[in-house]
Amino acid sequence: MPCCSADSCASSTGSSPRFRRVLWIVLAINGGMFAAEIVAGMLAGSAALQADALDFFADASNYAISLFVLGMNLKWRAGAAWIKGASMGLFGLWVLGAVVWHMAYGSVPHAPTMGVIGTVALLANLICLILLMAFRDGDANMRSVWICSRNDVIANVAVLLAALGVFGTGTGWPDFIVASLMAVLALQGAATILRDATREWRSAERLSAVPVLR
């Protein structure tokens, strides 16, 4: 797919019925996985699972925002992407705080629960990633959706590695390390989304300042 840098190109691509249907599907998947994983994370005492559950919630919210701004002009879509980038950054900071709390209390998660739920989450996010792959070269709003899904797959693989580490060592350190890495990944993704959204916002401002010749 060619990169749509113009407002009209990005708008026609981003508001297509196909993209709208895909967003509704991934919204439902992420909402359901949030509910399942937050319960499992609390029962297992896993910071990594709880972090991944909140990531599902953030993504579901982001997909809902993306659906709301479909068909709007570039400035609106850039603003929505900026909100998503900021929420991803806050999520990263929250996860770091959760890691510190679990380290202070010396929590040891339940490795089998981490493994089972992590596998289900990985399959769910792989489905989302495949569905969204065709839209990874659109505007900042569409790219932010792709970045969220890409980060989720990486995070799920890390959760499975953490489960193996907890099972093998009998300590919570693998869980703490993976949760910290997930937080850093979220902060990096947030920086990318905010940079792209800010650039497109400024581009939209310049275009709106140009007088229209009749």
TrEMBL record:
Membrane spanning residue stretches: 22-44, 56-74, 86-105, 111-132, 153-170, 176-194
Gene Ontology MF terms in the entry: zinc ion transmembrane transporter activity
Annotated localization: Membrane
Gene3D superfamilies: Cation efflux protein transmembrane domain
Domain Cation efflux protein transmembrane intervals: 23-199
UniProt superkingdom: Bacteria
Name of protein: Cation transporter
Gene source species: Paracoccus alkanivorans
Phylogenetic classification of the source organism: Bacteria, Pseudomonadati, Pseudomonadota, Alphaproteobacteria, Rhodobacterales
